[in-house]
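Weekly puzzle thread! Below is a chain. First person to post its structure in token form gets bragging rights.
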Amino acid sequence: MGIEKYAGRVAMVTGANSGIGFATTQVLLSHGITVVGFDKAVDKLQSLKLKDATSNLHVMEGDLRNEDSILAAFKWIRDHLSGVDIMINNAGLCKNAELTSAQTDIWRDLLDVNVLGLSICTREAVLDMLSRGVDDGFVIHICSICGHILPFNSDVAMYCASKQAVKTLLEGLRKDLVARKSKIRVGEISPGLTRTAIASEKIYDIFPCMEPEDVAGAVVYMLSQHPRVQVHEIIIRPTGFDY
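Winning reply:
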């Protein structure tokens, strides 16, 4: 009753072209799960698919800041793959933006991706599951340690606020599904510093960090639990890092 129960099912992974999203895409494919990789850039995903023409990977170019782009992706999945059974909300932006001087467009981009795009994907995935009678679906948000602590610098306050919102939205979703008497499970993974494109490479030479595969492993752990078990939250920190 591990992750193999999802073999042949469909997962949508946002931000799938790099970092945690790419690692998660690879590990889900290795377990026989069909993956729709959604991202603005898709070069790495296309290369991955070319390596194995029989792969159950479907590459979808789109923008989480554009609702029409998201809805088009879900329509394609419904038309060609029946629907989404596992929603991995991985995509996220982290931009330094002082609260007293940043341009509004910077805040808007950050919130559109980290909060609104995530919420639209969640809504569409859950409504699709419910319409098909899927009662063993899963929604996983890739959050951040910043969703659990106060900002360490003023210029990351908006980013931290967006991740605190993700944490709140997850609990609201859990309560919504319980009220509907649905067995669809939800969970959140909050990693500390992880080697991705979200930060400058030199940061990873200074501080202890994790690799994207470490976070992807937590996704597998959540999906592997018995249906009676809902791992609601996992916090992962690099060993030896005090933040």
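Puzzle host: Confirmed. Bonus trivia for everyone else. The mean pLDDT is 94.
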